[in-house]
Amino acid sequence: MRLIIMLLALISTGTLPAQTLDDYLAIALKNNPGIKAQNTEYQAARQKITQAGALPDPQVNASVFIRPMMLPMGNQLGSISAMQMFPWFGALGAMKNEAAQMAEVKQQAVQVTQNALAFQVKSAWYPLLELEIQGQILQEKKRVLEISKELASIKFQHGQAPMADAIRADIMIDEVVTQITLLEEKRRPLEAAFNLLLNRPADTPVVITATLPEIAHSAMIQPNSSIANNPALAVFDKQIQAEQAAEQAANFLRKPMFGAGLQYMPLIKRKGHDVHIEPNTGRDMVMPMVSITIPIWRKKYSAAVEERRLMQLAYSDMKTNMENELNAMAEMTGYELDKLVKTANLLDLQQKKTQQLIDLLMAAYSNNGKDFEEILRLQQQLFGYQSEKAATQTQYQLALAKLEFLTGKI
After folding, report:
1. Which backbone phi and psi does 181 adopt, to 5 degrees?
2. In contact, 119 and 28? CB cutoff 8 Å
3. Which in 123, 214, 220, 250 has the greatest CB count within 10 A?
4. What is the per-residue burial (b if ≥16 Cβ within 10 Å, else e) of 311-347?
5. Which residues contact 276 (CB under 8 A, 6 or more apart)?
6. pTM, whole model, 2 decimals?
7. pLDDT of 115-149, one tens digit each?
8. What is the fold, at CATH topology level, of the domain defined by 25-54+87-257+293-407?
């Protein structure tokens, strides 16, 4: 039964589709609840455009006299009137433009979140790749130690080497086995963090078929041009445009509003002759009406305009401050990339020379059974270089991901 379960697990694992980093990025961008919420906020903000461009609701007033009022034309029963106010010419368009620009700020915020999410996904993906490579290095290290142990045992049997050589190799094998176990345990939290970024269950299997890309020479970036596409900077541009639209709309608060309406008064003829007022026709009266608002308290309207102008200056300064911060981070990231390239080149050279030395010592050990401890030490050193190279490759890819985040390359 245990064998059947293992076979089923292997089969199910083998049927999992291999997905690239781009595939996972697409899943994360599609499923992220934060991005969904911001898209919904943008759609909600778009609804304000229609609201801002609508006329004020008309006012309807009605009144009824408890006892009819006597007028020359007859007795007035009451009155009903309707009034529609009209903003100054262009005011509605300015308010619609303000609402549209505010919605654009919401939309740009979505791109900021997408850029940050892409960086988070990459930052979680490359450590998983490194974990895979480190596991392969440890497995190879274990295999080499087992071969060394076997060789030492053969030498001992022929009286050409002490038994301590085989025991020393066996101790190191136990250490590697423990390292492999710890590495496998580390996979679970890394996969859980990665899956949560994709908004899926934490225990979803992550199939890794890719390997860490080799480090290539990186060209130094041009900060002023590279960070210009960062979506966070575009948010400030959108906010400035929104404040400019709001300033234009605030200017219309200084303008009067006009109203046009109609009042209807129903009249009836008086009965009886105790009061006689000519002509007593009982004809209903219709009276057109106009009104105008007079914005005489101009200080508050001027303050509203000044508020929008000052906010434009504030957002402009915020953008400059962020540009400086991004440029500083881009410069440091460029330095880190250059340092990692040099480190990788050094590790490649160290691996090559160490392997040559191991080959020479192994050939000598086969003949005289000496320097086995030195061989083990050099093998450990070689695998240490390989492990460090994998860590350097990971750091390089993370630095590249940071550079892409700074430059807005999702």
Report:
1. -60, -45
2. no
3. 250
4. bbeebeeebeebbeebbebbeebbebbeebbebbeeb
5. none
6. 0.83
7. 999 999 999 999 999 999 999 999 999 999 998 88
8. Outer membrane efflux proteins (OEP) (1.20.1600)
